[in-house]
Amino acid sequence: MLDPQSSWPIARPEQLTDALREQGATPEERADLLPALRRLSEWQAPQPSPSDTRRLLAVLSSVLPAHSPVRQAIREQKLLQRSCIAFLLATARTQVSLFGLGFWLVSALITLIGAGVVLSKAVPDQDVVLRASGPLLAYLGTIIAFRGRGAQVLELELVCLPSPLQLAVARLVIVLGYDVGLGLALNLVLWAGGAEQVLALTLTFLMPLLLVAGLALLLSLRLSIQAAASLAYGIWLAVLAISSTSHLQTLLFAPALSALLGCIGVAGLAIALLRMHTAMHRLLPHS
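Structure (tokenized):
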């Protein structure tokens, strides 16, 4: 085995033979190449003079374009995309494949089950079902969107053209956009099914979703994404259970307070995104 610490030129014929064998050379090829390699190890490359270097650069510059059209096109496209929302949408489009078919189907199924329970009136307190199912979508979406940290591919993502902040925003656009779309679809289903207070029911589905998503992203700056999302959803379920067994339900889940919870969630998302760049060194794996 050729010593990886050995330096070139290799003086001994045995080392040259081993090097050729590792490159897949046949015995006949090794016999032909060995004398040439031994002569090569004795050859001293001439040192170019400054005039030689200038002549070489003059010849190369005459055949190279003054401006690379490819780089110019990339630069113009990059400036165009960064100056408008097209860059964010293009980044989000490239990230859609990371979620997988299971995420889309499970999220839609959870929404469909929530709508079915509300329309069938199988549960006396229908609001509880929507308040629990909405944040469940945020829990699933957060884990899927930011599972790259657990898969130890964050360093790979850092070499991509979008920054970590842009990647995070693009993935949140996918998750929250899909969840809000499901909420609007839920609104239509409830309205078509003759449910009462459709708007209030939709708010009880969407506002806690935003709250749990914001809390999960904030906690992910200190915890793993699985632990952060689980803790955020667990805290919400605990609040939901306490309020359901006490007289605070009417006060805590009034329409105005529900809207406030959603605003708090959006504020949490904004704070987490702003701190993500400064906290990136803590998110990288350490040896």
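Confidence is low (pLDDT under 50) at residues 1-9. The chain is about 75% helix and 0% strand.
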